[in-house]
Amino acid sequence: MTALLSVIGLGKKFGGLQAVQGLDLTLNEGEILGLIGPNGAGKSTVFNLINGVFPPDAGRIVLEGKDITGEPPYRVARHGLARAHQIVQPLLGLSVLDNCTVGACFGRENLPLHRARDVAREVAESVGLGDRLDMLASSLTTAGKKRLELARALSARPRVLLLDEVLSGLNPTETEGMIRTVRRIRDGGVAILMIEHIMRAIMSLSDRIVVLNLGRKLAEGTPQEVASNPAVITAYLGEPQLMAAAENPG
Amino acid sequence: MWRRPFPWLIVGAALLYALVPYFTDDVQLRESLLLAAVYIILASNLNLMIGYAGYVNFGNIVFFGLGGYICLYLVNDFQWPLILAALLGGVAVSALALLFGLGILRLRGAFFALATIGVNAAIQQIVTNFEPWGGATGIYLALDAYGSLGGPMQALWTTYLLIVALTAASLLASYAIRNSKFGLGLIAIGQNEDAAAVLGVPTPLYKALIYSASAFLPAMAGGLYFFKSGIIEPTGAFNLQTSIEAIVMVMLGGSGTILGPTLGAFLYEELRGYLLIAEPFSHFQLVIAGTLLLIIVLFAPGGLLGFVHRLWPRTRRWLE
Description:
The complex is a heterodimer.
Chain A: E1 3-14, E2 17-28, E3 32-36, H1 43-50, E4 58-63, E5 66-67, H2 73-78, E6 81-84, H3 96-106, H4 113-126, H5 142-155, E7 160-164, H6 172-187, E8 191-195, H7 199-205, E9 208-213, E10 216-221, H8 223-227, H9 230-236, H10 240-247
Parallel strand pairs in A: 3-8, 3-9, 6-7, 7-8
Antiparallel strand pairs in A: 1-2, 1-4, 4-5, 9-10
Helix pairs in contact in A: 3-4, 3-5, 4-5
Chain B: H1 5-24, H2 27-53, H3 61-78, H4 82-104, H5 109-128, E1 139-140, H6 151-178, H7 181-191, H8 193-198, H9 203-229, E2 231-232, H10 234-237, H11 240-253, H12 259-277, H13 285-299, H14 303-311
Antiparallel strand pairs in B: 1-2
Helix pairs in contact in B: 1-6, 2-6, 2-7, 2-9, 2-11, 2-12, 3-4, 3-9, 4-9, 6-9, 7-9, 11-12, 11-13, 11-14, 12-14
Protein backbone atom coordinates (compact mmCIF):
# COMPACT_ATOMS: atom_id res chain seq x y z
CA MET A 1 0.00 0.00 0.00
CA THR A 2 1.23 3.46 -0.81
CA ALA A 3 0.59 6.54 1.27
CA LEU A 4 -1.55 9.13 -0.54
CA LEU A 5 -1.51 11.60 2.28
CA SER A 6 1.10 11.85 5.00
CA VAL A 7 1.01 14.21 7.91
CA ILE A 8 4.30 14.44 9.77
CA GLY A 9 4.79 16.09 13.16
CA LEU A 10 1.87 18.50 12.66
CA GLY A 11 1.52 21.26 15.26
CA LYS A 12 -0.68 24.34 15.72
CA LYS A 13 -1.06 26.76 18.58
CA PHE A 14 -3.90 29.25 19.03
CA GLY A 15 -2.64 31.79 21.54
CA GLY A 16 -1.82 29.73 24.63
CA LEU A 17 -3.75 26.69 23.45
CA GLN A 18 -1.79 23.90 21.80
CA ALA A 19 -4.59 22.66 19.53
CA VAL A 20 -2.54 20.02 17.72
CA GLN A 21 0.88 18.70 18.66
CA GLY A 22 3.31 16.29 17.02
CA LEU A 23 0.63 14.51 15.02
CA ASP A 24 1.57 11.85 12.46
CA LEU A 25 -1.06 10.43 10.11
CA THR A 26 -0.89 8.25 7.03
CA LEU A 27 -3.78 7.71 4.64
CA ASN A 28 -3.24 4.89 2.18
CA GLU A 29 -4.77 4.35 -1.22
CA GLY A 30 -8.29 2.91 -1.11
CA GLU A 31 -8.55 3.38 2.63
CA ILE A 32 -11.05 4.92 5.00
CA LEU A 33 -9.24 6.34 8.00
CA GLY A 34 -11.43 7.45 10.91
CA LEU A 35 -10.38 10.34 13.10
CA ILE A 36 -12.15 10.33 16.43
CA GLY A 37 -11.72 11.94 19.80
CA PRO A 38 -13.65 13.79 22.50
CA ASN A 39 -14.96 17.30 21.82
CA GLY A 40 -12.13 19.81 21.56
CA ALA A 41 -9.55 17.12 20.75
CA GLY A 42 -8.46 19.09 17.67
CA LYS A 43 -10.05 17.02 14.92
CA SER A 44 -11.45 19.91 12.87
CA THR A 45 -8.23 21.84 13.36
CA VAL A 46 -6.34 18.93 11.78
CA PHE A 47 -8.66 19.22 8.76
CA ASN A 48 -8.17 22.97 8.61
CA LEU A 49 -4.41 22.49 8.65
CA ILE A 50 -4.46 19.80 5.98
CA ASN A 51 -6.56 21.74 3.49
CA GLY A 52 -4.81 25.03 4.14
CA VAL A 53 -7.40 27.09 6.00
CA PHE A 54 -4.58 27.89 8.47
CA PRO A 55 -0.88 27.24 8.01
CA PRO A 56 0.59 24.87 10.62
CA ASP A 57 3.25 26.08 13.08
CA ALA A 58 5.15 22.82 12.77
CA GLY A 59 5.21 19.72 10.64
CA ARG A 60 4.67 18.80 7.03
CA ILE A 61 1.75 17.67 4.90
CA VAL A 62 2.56 15.57 1.85
CA LEU A 63 -0.07 14.71 -0.77
CA GLU A 64 0.92 12.20 -3.45
CA GLY A 65 4.58 12.96 -2.87
CA LYS A 66 4.09 16.74 -3.11
CA ASP A 67 4.70 18.91 -0.09
CA ILE A 68 1.55 21.04 0.29
CA THR A 69 2.33 22.48 3.72
CA GLY A 70 1.02 26.02 4.10
CA GLU A 71 -0.54 26.24 0.64
CA PRO A 72 -3.88 28.10 0.47
CA PRO A 73 -7.09 26.03 0.21
CA TYR A 74 -7.63 26.73 -3.50
CA ARG A 75 -4.23 25.29 -4.37
CA VAL A 76 -4.69 22.29 -2.11
CA ALA A 77 -8.00 21.62 -3.90
CA ARG A 78 -6.20 21.73 -7.25
CA HIS A 79 -3.73 19.11 -5.99
CA GLY A 80 -6.62 16.68 -5.55
CA LEU A 81 -7.84 17.10 -2.00
CA ALA A 82 -11.51 17.91 -1.42
CA ARG A 83 -13.42 18.54 1.76
CA ALA A 84 -16.99 18.34 2.98
CA HIS A 85 -17.63 20.62 5.92
CA GLN A 86 -19.26 19.76 9.21
CA ILE A 87 -21.40 22.88 8.99
CA VAL A 88 -22.59 22.75 5.40
CA GLN A 89 -21.45 25.65 3.24
CA PRO A 90 -23.66 25.54 0.14
CA LEU A 91 -23.58 28.44 -2.31
CA LEU A 92 -27.20 29.19 -1.43
CA GLY A 93 -28.13 31.33 -4.41
CA LEU A 94 -26.88 28.79 -6.94
CA SER A 95 -28.63 25.66 -8.14
CA VAL A 96 -27.53 22.18 -7.07
CA LEU A 97 -25.99 21.67 -10.50
CA ASP A 98 -24.08 24.97 -10.39
CA ASN A 99 -22.76 24.18 -6.91
CA CYS A 100 -21.33 20.92 -8.21
CA THR A 101 -20.07 22.62 -11.37
CA VAL A 102 -17.95 24.94 -9.22
CA GLY A 103 -16.38 21.86 -7.65
CA ALA A 104 -15.71 20.26 -11.02
CA CYS A 105 -14.43 23.46 -12.64
CA PHE A 106 -11.86 24.31 -10.03
CA GLY A 107 -10.97 20.88 -8.68
CA ARG A 108 -8.16 18.50 -9.54
CA GLU A 109 -9.06 18.23 -13.22
CA ASN A 110 -9.54 21.99 -13.73
CA LEU A 111 -12.23 21.34 -16.35
CA PRO A 112 -13.70 23.85 -18.79
CA LEU A 113 -17.26 24.92 -18.01
CA HIS A 114 -19.24 22.64 -20.33
CA ARG A 115 -17.29 19.49 -19.40
CA ALA A 116 -17.52 20.42 -15.73
CA ARG A 117 -21.30 20.61 -16.04
CA ASP A 118 -21.43 17.03 -17.35
CA VAL A 119 -19.24 15.75 -14.51
CA ALA A 120 -21.33 17.70 -11.99
CA ARG A 121 -24.55 16.21 -13.31
CA GLU A 122 -23.12 12.70 -13.17
CA VAL A 123 -21.81 13.10 -9.61
CA ALA A 124 -25.00 14.74 -8.35
CA GLU A 125 -26.98 11.82 -9.73
CA SER A 126 -24.62 9.31 -8.13
CA VAL A 127 -25.25 10.71 -4.64
CA GLY A 128 -29.00 10.85 -5.19
CA LEU A 129 -29.53 14.50 -6.11
CA GLY A 130 -30.41 13.79 -9.74
CA ASP A 131 -34.01 14.89 -9.30
CA ARG A 132 -33.05 18.21 -7.71
CA LEU A 133 -30.42 19.54 -10.14
CA ASP A 134 -32.22 22.82 -10.87
CA MET A 135 -33.33 23.49 -7.31
CA LEU A 136 -31.63 26.31 -5.45
CA ALA A 137 -29.25 25.02 -2.78
CA SER A 138 -31.11 27.15 -0.23
CA SER A 139 -34.30 25.15 -0.72
CA LEU A 140 -32.74 21.75 0.08
CA THR A 141 -33.41 19.95 3.37
CA THR A 142 -30.56 19.35 5.86
CA ALA A 143 -30.01 15.88 4.46
CA GLY A 144 -30.07 17.32 0.95
CA LYS A 145 -27.50 19.95 1.87
CA LYS A 146 -25.24 17.26 3.38
CA ARG A 147 -25.48 15.33 0.12
CA LEU A 148 -24.77 18.48 -1.85
CA GLU A 149 -21.69 19.16 0.29
CA LEU A 150 -20.49 15.66 -0.59
CA ALA A 151 -21.42 15.92 -4.28
CA ARG A 152 -19.62 19.21 -4.63
CA ALA A 153 -16.45 17.81 -3.07
CA LEU A 154 -16.67 14.72 -5.30
CA SER A 155 -17.21 16.75 -8.45
CA ALA A 156 -13.58 17.85 -8.10
CA ARG A 157 -12.67 14.18 -8.76
CA PRO A 158 -10.34 14.23 -5.75
CA ARG A 159 -7.76 11.63 -4.78
CA VAL A 160 -8.34 12.33 -1.09
CA LEU A 161 -11.60 13.34 0.53
CA LEU A 162 -11.91 14.88 3.99
CA LEU A 163 -15.35 14.25 5.49
CA ASP A 164 -16.18 16.25 8.58
CA GLU A 165 -19.22 14.74 10.33
CA VAL A 166 -21.28 14.13 7.22
CA LEU A 167 -23.64 11.95 9.26
CA SER A 168 -24.52 14.44 11.99
CA GLY A 169 -28.07 15.72 11.88
CA LEU A 170 -29.34 12.89 9.69
CA ASN A 171 -32.11 10.50 10.72
CA PRO A 172 -31.38 6.73 10.84
CA THR A 173 -32.62 6.07 7.30
CA GLU A 174 -30.61 8.96 5.87
CA THR A 175 -27.57 7.79 7.87
CA GLU A 176 -27.81 4.32 6.34
CA GLY A 177 -28.00 5.85 2.87
CA MET A 178 -25.02 8.09 3.54
CA ILE A 179 -22.92 5.19 4.87
CA ARG A 180 -23.60 3.27 1.66
CA THR A 181 -22.64 6.36 -0.36
CA VAL A 182 -19.35 6.78 1.53
CA ARG A 183 -18.46 3.10 0.93
CA ARG A 184 -19.22 3.51 -2.76
CA ILE A 185 -16.96 6.56 -2.96
CA ARG A 186 -14.10 4.58 -1.42
CA ASP A 187 -14.73 1.71 -3.83
CA GLY A 188 -14.50 4.27 -6.63
CA GLY A 189 -10.85 4.83 -5.68
CA VAL A 190 -10.98 7.87 -3.40
CA ALA A 191 -9.14 7.63 -0.10
CA ILE A 192 -11.20 9.06 2.75
CA LEU A 193 -10.20 10.67 6.02
CA MET A 194 -13.30 11.16 8.12
CA ILE A 195 -14.27 12.69 11.43
CA GLU A 196 -17.41 11.22 12.93
CA HIS A 197 -19.17 11.24 16.27
CA ILE A 198 -21.57 8.42 15.52
CA MET A 199 -19.48 5.54 16.85
CA ARG A 200 -21.40 2.69 15.28
CA ALA A 201 -20.95 4.27 11.87
CA ILE A 202 -17.25 5.07 12.13
CA MET A 203 -16.47 1.65 13.64
CA SER A 204 -18.12 -0.13 10.73
CA LEU A 205 -16.83 2.20 7.99
CA SER A 206 -13.18 2.71 8.93
CA ASP A 207 -10.32 0.43 7.97
CA ARG A 208 -8.19 2.08 10.63
CA ILE A 209 -8.92 4.64 13.31
CA VAL A 210 -6.77 7.34 14.88
CA VAL A 211 -7.88 8.62 18.27
CA LEU A 212 -7.03 12.19 19.12
CA ASN A 213 -7.09 13.67 22.61
CA LEU A 214 -5.98 17.17 23.62
CA GLY A 215 -4.29 17.63 20.26
CA ARG A 216 -2.16 14.48 20.47
CA LYS A 217 -2.53 11.01 19.06
CA LEU A 218 -3.84 8.75 21.77
CA ALA A 219 -4.15 5.49 19.86
CA GLU A 220 -4.16 4.07 16.35
CA GLY A 221 -5.28 0.76 14.94
CA THR A 222 -8.20 -1.26 13.62
CA PRO A 223 -11.61 -0.38 15.06
CA GLN A 224 -11.48 -3.37 17.42
CA GLU A 225 -7.98 -2.55 18.68
CA VAL A 226 -8.86 1.05 19.29
CA ALA A 227 -12.14 0.26 21.02
CA SER A 228 -10.49 -2.11 23.47
CA ASN A 229 -7.58 0.23 24.21
CA PRO A 230 -7.78 1.20 27.92
CA ALA A 231 -6.43 4.71 27.26
CA VAL A 232 -9.16 5.34 24.70
CA ILE A 233 -11.86 4.07 27.02
CA THR A 234 -10.59 6.38 29.74
CA ALA A 235 -10.63 9.38 27.42
CA TYR A 236 -14.15 8.51 26.32
CA LEU A 237 -15.48 7.54 29.75
CA GLY A 238 -19.07 8.57 29.85
CA GLU A 239 -19.62 7.75 26.20
CA PRO A 240 -21.21 4.32 26.38
CA GLN A 241 -21.67 4.24 22.59
CA LEU A 242 -18.03 3.28 22.22
CA MET A 243 -18.40 0.36 24.62
CA ALA A 244 -21.48 -0.81 22.79
CA ALA A 245 -19.77 -0.48 19.43
CA ALA A 246 -16.74 -2.40 20.73
CA GLU A 247 -18.91 -5.27 21.87
CA ASN A 248 -20.88 -5.32 18.67
CA PRO A 249 -18.80 -4.03 15.74
CA GLY A 250 -20.61 -3.45 12.46
CA MET B 1 -21.60 33.19 -27.22
CA TRP B 2 -23.00 34.51 -30.50
CA ARG B 3 -25.19 31.45 -30.92
CA ARG B 4 -27.56 32.71 -28.25
CA PRO B 5 -30.08 35.48 -28.98
CA PHE B 6 -29.15 37.67 -26.02
CA PRO B 7 -25.91 39.22 -27.39
CA TRP B 8 -27.65 40.04 -30.66
CA LEU B 9 -30.40 41.73 -28.68
CA ILE B 10 -27.76 43.91 -27.03
CA VAL B 11 -26.19 44.83 -30.37
CA GLY B 12 -29.59 45.62 -31.87
CA ALA B 13 -30.65 47.75 -28.93
CA ALA B 14 -27.34 49.65 -29.03
CA LEU B 15 -27.75 50.37 -32.76
CA LEU B 16 -31.23 51.71 -32.15
CA TYR B 17 -29.97 53.75 -29.20
CA ALA B 18 -27.21 55.24 -31.38
CA LEU B 19 -29.32 55.96 -34.44
CA VAL B 20 -32.52 57.45 -33.00
CA PRO B 21 -31.04 60.85 -32.03
CA TYR B 22 -28.88 60.78 -35.17
CA PHE B 23 -31.78 60.48 -37.57
CA THR B 24 -34.13 62.71 -35.61
CA ASP B 25 -31.19 65.14 -35.27
CA ASP B 26 -32.40 65.84 -31.73
CA VAL B 27 -29.42 67.24 -29.82
CA GLN B 28 -31.29 67.47 -26.53
CA LEU B 29 -32.32 63.83 -26.76
CA ARG B 30 -28.73 62.92 -27.58
CA GLU B 31 -27.42 64.68 -24.48
CA SER B 32 -29.92 62.95 -22.23
CA LEU B 33 -29.22 59.56 -23.83
CA LEU B 34 -25.48 60.15 -23.55
CA LEU B 35 -25.73 60.73 -19.82
CA ALA B 36 -27.88 57.64 -19.43
CA ALA B 37 -25.34 55.64 -21.46
CA VAL B 38 -22.50 56.79 -19.20
CA TYR B 39 -24.52 55.72 -16.16
CA ILE B 40 -25.21 52.35 -17.75
CA ILE B 41 -21.47 51.86 -18.28
CA LEU B 42 -20.73 52.78 -14.66
CA ALA B 43 -23.54 50.63 -13.24
CA SER B 44 -22.91 47.62 -15.47
CA ASN B 45 -19.21 47.50 -14.61
CA LEU B 46 -19.85 48.15 -10.93
CA ASN B 47 -22.22 45.20 -11.06
CA LEU B 48 -19.27 42.94 -11.91
CA MET B 49 -17.98 43.72 -8.42
CA ILE B 50 -21.23 44.01 -6.44
CA GLY B 51 -23.44 41.53 -8.25
CA TYR B 52 -20.90 38.86 -9.19
CA ALA B 53 -18.04 38.94 -6.69
CA GLY B 54 -20.11 40.43 -3.85
CA TYR B 55 -17.76 43.31 -3.10
CA VAL B 56 -19.23 46.81 -2.77
CA ASN B 57 -16.89 49.23 -4.48
CA PHE B 58 -17.91 52.58 -3.01
CA GLY B 59 -15.15 54.50 -4.74
CA ASN B 60 -15.91 53.17 -8.23
CA ILE B 61 -15.94 56.69 -9.70
CA VAL B 62 -12.15 56.88 -9.33
CA PHE B 63 -11.79 54.78 -12.51
CA PHE B 64 -13.99 57.20 -14.47
CA GLY B 65 -12.17 60.29 -13.21
CA LEU B 66 -8.66 58.97 -13.62
CA GLY B 67 -9.44 57.65 -17.11
CA GLY B 68 -10.78 61.11 -17.97
CA TYR B 69 -7.63 62.83 -16.75
CA ILE B 70 -5.25 60.53 -18.62
CA CYS B 71 -7.24 60.89 -21.86
CA LEU B 72 -7.54 64.67 -21.71
CA TYR B 73 -3.90 65.07 -20.81
CA LEU B 74 -2.82 63.00 -23.83
CA VAL B 75 -5.23 64.77 -26.19
CA ASN B 76 -4.45 68.27 -24.93
CA ASP B 77 -0.71 68.19 -24.29
CA PHE B 78 0.42 65.53 -26.77
CA GLN B 79 -2.23 65.81 -29.51
CA TRP B 80 -3.05 62.12 -29.32
CA PRO B 81 -6.10 60.97 -31.30
CA LEU B 82 -9.12 60.64 -29.00
CA ILE B 83 -9.68 56.91 -29.36
CA LEU B 84 -6.07 56.05 -28.68
CA ALA B 85 -5.93 58.39 -25.67
CA ALA B 86 -9.13 56.92 -24.19
CA LEU B 87 -7.83 53.40 -24.79
CA LEU B 88 -4.56 54.12 -23.05
CA GLY B 89 -6.53 55.66 -20.18
CA GLY B 90 -8.49 52.43 -19.88
CA VAL B 91 -5.40 50.24 -19.97
CA ALA B 92 -3.47 52.38 -17.48
CA VAL B 93 -6.34 52.60 -14.98
CA SER B 94 -6.98 48.87 -15.33
CA ALA B 95 -3.34 48.09 -14.60
CA LEU B 96 -3.36 50.40 -11.60
CA ALA B 97 -6.58 48.75 -10.34
CA LEU B 98 -4.91 45.35 -10.59
CA LEU B 99 -2.13 46.53 -8.29
CA PHE B 100 -4.52 48.18 -5.84
CA GLY B 101 -6.85 45.20 -6.01
CA LEU B 102 -4.20 42.71 -4.94
CA GLY B 103 -3.80 44.85 -1.83
CA ILE B 104 -7.21 46.10 -0.75
CA LEU B 105 -9.13 42.98 -1.76
CA ARG B 106 -7.65 41.26 1.27
CA LEU B 107 -10.27 43.26 3.13
CA ARG B 108 -13.86 42.18 3.22
CA GLY B 109 -17.28 43.75 3.67
CA ALA B 110 -17.39 47.23 5.17
CA PHE B 111 -13.59 47.40 5.41
CA PHE B 112 -13.23 46.90 1.68
CA ALA B 113 -15.90 49.53 1.01
CA LEU B 114 -14.04 52.01 3.24
CA ALA B 115 -10.75 51.26 1.53
CA THR B 116 -12.27 52.02 -1.88
CA ILE B 117 -13.49 55.39 -0.59
CA GLY B 118 -9.94 55.93 0.62
CA VAL B 119 -8.50 55.13 -2.80
CA ASN B 120 -10.85 57.65 -4.42
CA ALA B 121 -10.01 60.35 -1.85
CA ALA B 122 -6.28 59.71 -2.13
CA ILE B 123 -6.25 59.88 -5.94
CA GLN B 124 -8.35 63.04 -5.81
CA GLN B 125 -5.82 64.67 -3.45
CA ILE B 126 -2.88 63.60 -5.57
CA VAL B 127 -4.49 64.95 -8.74
CA THR B 128 -5.45 68.21 -7.00
CA ASN B 129 -1.77 68.74 -6.22
CA PHE B 130 -0.42 67.48 -9.53
CA GLU B 131 0.63 70.54 -11.52
CA PRO B 132 0.95 68.94 -15.00
CA TRP B 133 -2.78 68.14 -14.74
CA GLY B 134 -3.64 71.69 -13.77
CA GLY B 135 -3.93 71.10 -10.02
CA ALA B 136 -7.23 72.24 -8.55
CA THR B 137 -8.33 74.04 -11.73
CA GLY B 138 -7.96 70.95 -13.89
CA ILE B 139 -7.49 70.66 -17.64
CA TYR B 140 -9.36 72.85 -20.13
CA LEU B 141 -9.38 71.34 -23.56
CA ALA B 142 -8.17 73.69 -26.32
CA LEU B 143 -10.88 74.13 -28.96
CA ASP B 144 -8.62 72.90 -31.76
CA ALA B 145 -8.52 69.49 -30.05
CA TYR B 146 -11.88 68.92 -31.76
CA GLY B 147 -10.42 69.78 -35.13
CA SER B 148 -9.21 66.29 -35.96
CA LEU B 149 -12.77 65.01 -35.50
CA GLY B 150 -14.24 67.52 -37.96
CA GLY B 151 -15.05 70.38 -35.61
CA PRO B 152 -16.93 70.56 -32.29
CA MET B 153 -20.37 69.65 -33.69
CA GLN B 154 -19.13 66.54 -35.42
CA ALA B 155 -16.93 65.64 -32.43
CA LEU B 156 -19.97 65.57 -30.15
CA TRP B 157 -21.69 63.06 -32.43
CA THR B 158 -18.54 60.95 -32.62
CA THR B 159 -18.19 60.83 -28.83
CA TYR B 160 -21.86 59.93 -28.53
CA LEU B 161 -21.47 56.99 -30.89
CA LEU B 162 -18.30 55.85 -29.15
CA ILE B 163 -19.97 55.98 -25.73
CA VAL B 164 -22.90 53.93 -27.02
CA ALA B 165 -20.36 51.43 -28.36
CA LEU B 166 -18.77 51.24 -24.89
CA THR B 167 -22.22 50.70 -23.39
CA ALA B 168 -22.79 47.73 -25.68
CA ALA B 169 -19.31 46.45 -24.87
CA SER B 170 -20.08 46.70 -21.14
CA LEU B 171 -23.23 44.60 -21.51
CA LEU B 172 -21.52 42.06 -23.76
CA ALA B 173 -18.63 41.77 -21.31
CA SER B 174 -21.05 41.31 -18.43
CA TYR B 175 -22.83 38.59 -20.40
CA ALA B 176 -19.62 36.84 -21.44
CA ILE B 177 -18.25 36.87 -17.89
CA ARG B 178 -21.50 35.61 -16.40
CA ASN B 179 -21.50 32.64 -18.76
CA SER B 180 -17.85 31.71 -18.26
CA LYS B 181 -15.86 29.65 -15.80
CA PHE B 182 -14.37 32.90 -14.50
CA GLY B 183 -17.89 34.19 -13.85
CA LEU B 184 -18.93 31.03 -12.05
CA GLY B 185 -15.88 31.36 -9.81
CA LEU B 186 -16.76 35.00 -9.11
CA ILE B 187 -20.36 34.19 -8.28
CA ALA B 188 -19.13 31.43 -5.97
CA ILE B 189 -16.94 34.03 -4.23
CA GLY B 190 -19.93 36.33 -3.94
CA GLN B 191 -21.99 33.58 -2.34
CA ASN B 192 -19.41 32.29 0.15
CA GLU B 193 -15.79 33.20 -0.31
CA ASP B 194 -14.34 30.64 2.13
CA ALA B 195 -16.33 27.80 0.61
CA ALA B 196 -15.28 28.93 -2.87
CA ALA B 197 -11.60 28.78 -1.87
CA VAL B 198 -12.01 25.27 -0.45
CA LEU B 199 -13.59 24.26 -3.75
CA GLY B 200 -10.50 25.50 -5.55
CA VAL B 201 -11.49 28.98 -6.79
CA PRO B 202 -8.28 31.07 -6.77
CA THR B 203 -9.98 33.85 -4.84
CA PRO B 204 -7.25 36.53 -4.57
CA LEU B 205 -6.46 36.36 -8.29
CA TYR B 206 -10.09 36.34 -9.40
CA LYS B 207 -11.00 39.26 -7.18
CA ALA B 208 -8.09 41.35 -8.40
CA LEU B 209 -8.87 40.47 -12.03
CA ILE B 210 -12.51 41.50 -11.79
CA TYR B 211 -11.61 44.69 -9.92
CA SER B 212 -9.23 45.50 -12.76
CA ALA B 213 -11.70 44.48 -15.48
CA SER B 214 -14.44 46.59 -13.91
CA ALA B 215 -12.13 49.61 -14.24
CA PHE B 216 -11.39 49.35 -17.96
CA LEU B 217 -14.60 50.49 -19.70
CA PRO B 218 -15.53 53.14 -17.08
CA ALA B 219 -12.04 54.64 -17.48
CA MET B 220 -12.47 54.77 -21.26
CA ALA B 221 -15.94 56.25 -20.81
CA GLY B 222 -14.42 58.88 -18.52
CA GLY B 223 -12.02 59.84 -21.28
CA LEU B 224 -14.81 60.28 -23.82
CA TYR B 225 -17.17 62.00 -21.41
CA PHE B 226 -14.69 64.62 -20.24
CA PHE B 227 -13.49 65.12 -23.81
CA LYS B 228 -17.08 65.93 -24.70
CA SER B 229 -17.34 68.32 -21.72
CA GLY B 230 -14.04 69.94 -22.68
CA ILE B 231 -13.01 70.34 -19.06
CA ILE B 232 -12.01 68.11 -16.16
CA GLU B 233 -11.32 69.16 -12.58
CA PRO B 234 -10.79 67.11 -9.40
CA THR B 235 -14.09 67.65 -7.56
CA GLY B 236 -16.14 66.82 -10.65
CA ALA B 237 -13.99 63.88 -11.72
CA PHE B 238 -13.83 62.11 -8.35
CA ASN B 239 -17.32 62.90 -7.09
CA LEU B 240 -18.22 60.35 -4.43
CA GLN B 241 -21.89 61.22 -4.89
CA THR B 242 -21.85 59.72 -8.38
CA SER B 243 -20.27 56.57 -6.92
CA ILE B 244 -23.15 56.20 -4.51
CA GLU B 245 -25.69 56.90 -7.24
CA ALA B 246 -24.12 54.11 -9.30
CA ILE B 247 -24.66 51.72 -6.39
CA VAL B 248 -28.32 52.78 -6.22
CA MET B 249 -28.67 52.08 -9.96
CA VAL B 250 -27.21 48.57 -9.60
CA MET B 251 -29.45 47.73 -6.66
CA LEU B 252 -32.53 49.36 -8.21
CA GLY B 253 -32.35 47.30 -11.38
CA GLY B 254 -31.17 44.08 -9.79
CA SER B 255 -27.57 43.27 -8.95
CA GLY B 256 -26.01 40.12 -10.40
CA THR B 257 -28.11 40.26 -13.56
CA ILE B 258 -27.03 41.68 -16.92
CA LEU B 259 -30.03 43.84 -17.79
CA GLY B 260 -30.79 44.90 -14.21
CA PRO B 261 -28.08 47.56 -13.79
CA THR B 262 -28.92 48.89 -17.27
CA LEU B 263 -32.56 49.23 -16.36
CA GLY B 264 -31.63 50.79 -13.01
CA ALA B 265 -29.25 53.27 -14.59
CA PHE B 266 -31.74 54.35 -17.22
CA LEU B 267 -34.63 54.76 -14.77
CA TYR B 268 -32.48 56.54 -12.23
CA GLU B 269 -31.18 58.95 -14.85
CA GLU B 270 -34.72 59.78 -15.94
CA LEU B 271 -35.85 60.22 -12.35
CA ARG B 272 -32.84 62.37 -11.54
CA GLY B 273 -33.43 64.48 -14.62
CA TYR B 274 -37.01 65.09 -13.56
CA LEU B 275 -36.09 65.88 -9.96
CA LEU B 276 -33.39 68.31 -11.03
CA ILE B 277 -35.81 70.23 -13.24
CA ALA B 278 -38.91 70.09 -11.03
CA GLU B 279 -38.87 73.19 -8.87
CA PRO B 280 -39.95 71.75 -5.48
CA PHE B 281 -37.43 68.92 -5.67
CA SER B 282 -34.38 70.88 -6.74
CA HIS B 283 -31.28 69.02 -5.51
CA PHE B 284 -33.55 66.62 -3.76
CA GLN B 285 -32.40 63.63 -5.81
CA LEU B 286 -29.95 62.33 -3.21
CA VAL B 287 -32.69 62.13 -0.59
CA ILE B 288 -34.77 60.15 -3.06
CA ALA B 289 -31.76 57.98 -3.96
CA GLY B 290 -31.07 57.20 -0.31
CA THR B 291 -34.70 56.35 0.41
CA LEU B 292 -34.84 54.23 -2.73
CA LEU B 293 -31.73 52.29 -1.70
CA LEU B 294 -33.19 51.67 1.75
CA ILE B 295 -36.47 50.40 0.34
CA ILE B 296 -34.73 48.10 -2.16
CA VAL B 297 -32.28 46.62 0.35
CA LEU B 298 -35.07 46.03 2.89
CA PHE B 299 -37.90 44.83 0.71
CA ALA B 300 -36.62 43.85 -2.73
CA PRO B 301 -32.95 42.85 -2.52
CA GLY B 302 -33.23 41.44 -6.04
CA GLY B 303 -34.15 44.85 -7.45
CA LEU B 304 -36.64 45.35 -10.28
CA LEU B 305 -35.46 42.34 -12.25
CA GLY B 306 -35.52 40.15 -9.15
CA PHE B 307 -39.09 41.32 -8.57
CA VAL B 308 -40.08 40.43 -12.14
CA HIS B 309 -38.35 37.06 -11.84
CA ARG B 310 -40.28 36.32 -8.67
CA LEU B 311 -43.62 37.29 -10.19
CA TRP B 312 -43.01 35.38 -13.43
CA PRO B 313 -40.34 32.70 -12.88
CA ARG B 314 -40.35 31.91 -16.60
CA THR B 315 -38.74 35.27 -17.38
CA ARG B 316 -35.51 34.02 -15.75
CA ARG B 317 -34.72 32.14 -18.93
CA TRP B 318 -34.57 35.05 -21.33
CA LEU B 319 -34.48 38.17 -19.12
CA GLU B 320 -30.92 37.73 -17.92
